Amino acid sequence: MEQLNDFKKIYNLYTDLLNRSLEIGFSKDQKDRLNDIYELRSDNLRREKLREINGRLEKIYDINEIKDYWDGIKYYLLTNRQFIGKKVETLIAKSFDRTIKKIKEMSFQIHFIA
Hints:
Number of domains: 1
Helix content: over 70%
Strand content: under 5%
Structural class: mainly alpha
Number of helices: 6
Oligomer: single chain
Radius of gyration: 20 Å
Number of strands: 0
Distance between the termini: 54 Å
Shape: elongated
């Protein structure tokens, strides 16, 4: 599970193992551990995605580029909504808002100085 980087694949593996747990012979403790592993991996993947997005946003200085990036991220968030959650979606949206504000302020400063 640790090597998977896709929410849907992690969830599918988790549910498959959970559904086959009786057949495999998992004890209650092992099922609980599986759930813990799933939650931990999902949390780590959320943090990785947030870092990736914020890192990319720090390098964007063009309003068209951020709009293009938002279009891709918006689709990613929509397809992974059940795994990411509203809290993370809100954090990402706020990061985009801050970056747009930064770009507009920079643009204003450049026009004002020139």
